[in-house]
Design a protein that fits this description.
Elements: H1 4-27, H2 29-64, H3 69-86, H4 90-100, H5 102-115, H6 131-134
Helix pairs in contact: 1-2, 2-3, 3-4, 3-5
Length: 188
């Protein structure tokens, strides 16, 4: 395993050069260069099209409160595939095209997921899926009723803004000398 990375780093460019020579001998130099240019353009276009699709799926998963981990992993694989298509070479193009295929990408993502841990955290506020919250948005906080089978989540309750007075906010590292909070404020 220790010698695999240097072997790939040294062997891949040599294999790509051998591929250029073999393809150039069969179809000619001009067609070989045109094929390399076309694969780079295809990589850029696929990155743009597939990248926006992945971005849309990640945003939708985050908006609905689902875990976007698999979509992010798929996006990383699409990015790697596009880079492999953009880099000149027929072996890298072949690997890049294989990664662009959804079944191959899912298999790679499943393999990677079994070998690593994907952590994601959701922050922010979300609204319950109810007819009230899907209508017009008001500026005040909305309350969701008790959790029912029809709504996947309740809205988080609480103020959206924390307002601190000057006597409550300090950039000092030592808070022992500060006066206690005003009596109208409850400690947490």
């Amino acid at each position: 395993m220790r010698f695999l990375i240097p072997l790939v780093i040294l062997g891949l460019p040599l294999a790509e050069i051998a591929g250029f020579v073999a393809v150039g001998r069969e179809i000619g130099v001009a067609m070989t260069l045109l094929l390399v240019f076309a694969s780079a353009v295809a990589g850029i276009m696929l990155l743009r099209i597939q990248g926006f699709g992945v971005l849309r799926r990640v945003q939708e998963a985050a908006r609905t409160g689902n875990d976007p981990g698999l979509d992010v992993l798929g996006g990383v694989l699409i990015f790697i595939a596009a880079i492999l298509l953009i880099v000149p070479g027929f072996i890298s193009d072949l690997v890049g095209l294989l990664i662009f295929l959804p079944p191959v990408r899912r298999a790679i993502a499943g393999f990677l997921r079994s070998r690593m841990t994907i952590l994601s955290s959701a922050t922010g506020f979300y609204r319950a899926s109810s007819p009230q919250s899907s209508g017009s948005r008001s500026s005040g906080p909305q309350s969701a009723g008790p959790r029912s089978a029809g709504t996947p989540r309740e809205e988080r309750r609480g103020p959206l803004t924390i307002d601190l007075d000057e006597d409550e906010f300090s950039r000092k590292t030592e808070d022992e000398d500060d006066p206690p909070p005003p009596p109208d404020r409850l400690p947490h």
